[in-house]
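User: Here's a chain of 293 residues. Predict its fold as tokens.
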Amino acid sequence: MLLTSSLVLTINGSSFFNLSFFLEDFGFCLFCRSSPEDFFSRQRMAASEASAVSCCAHCGVQGMTLKRCKHCMQVWYCGAQCQKAEWKVHKNTCMSIDDIGRAVWAAHSASDWKGVLLWEGRMEELLEDGKTAEDNPDNICCCILEIFANAHELQTGPGSSSRFHAIEAVKLQKRRIELLGKMERFRDQGDVLCSIALILGAHVADEKEDEKEVERYYSMARTVGAQHGFFALECRACLGLGQLAALDGRPEEALELLRNSLAAAPLTEDERGGTYEMVALDAMSTSLFHLAR
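Assistant: Prediction complete.
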């Protein structure tokens, strides 16, 4: 897979540096000293500040004659003298966009999700670089968004930071929807819609309005599945909608939706059809129990 226009990534000993050594050597392992919210907030703030020419990174002098570091393009100096004096500090974070792409892909390949999120402050630069690729730039950008979204999603679970990671994952997945539609990858687009609904329902939906948002994404996924004949997608979306209706005290509507899910399950093109049938039948039994009361 390509992450940038000029970067061909292969998994071998010489392609990637040891990310854990990088974190330890440069002192970037901040997760044990701050909450995820604080950490990512500082990352975004640093990236934003770096984009505006303000002052020399060494002496602090302000002016329009500042020159940008040609390697990382993130800091500015009065001239060579200040850059040389600052190098002992700056060398620890001076990384080109290709270096960052390698670091992100290495962390992703090693399932080091915290290692991926370490670079979220530079994600927009990766996306801008991906847009300049000669070969399928939309797909490259979609892959970058997916890597960061998955990293956030896999940080959800017990703990106070779960909601934060869920919200960040949803933001990134929403950005993928438009790109997938543009590439006419409608099956993937529908899967993303279902994933958003699932994340929202599991970690974010605390109020009635949130539940409506979950229902809206499942409904959109159902529409995509019906329009393009993706039975597995339609089955999954109807199942989600049926479960929502059952939990919301609408047993008749839940039964109808779950029957639709069961009808589509045998037509699915993968092994998940049987799983959907089992979950739908279980939800139907719950709905029938409420109807009988």
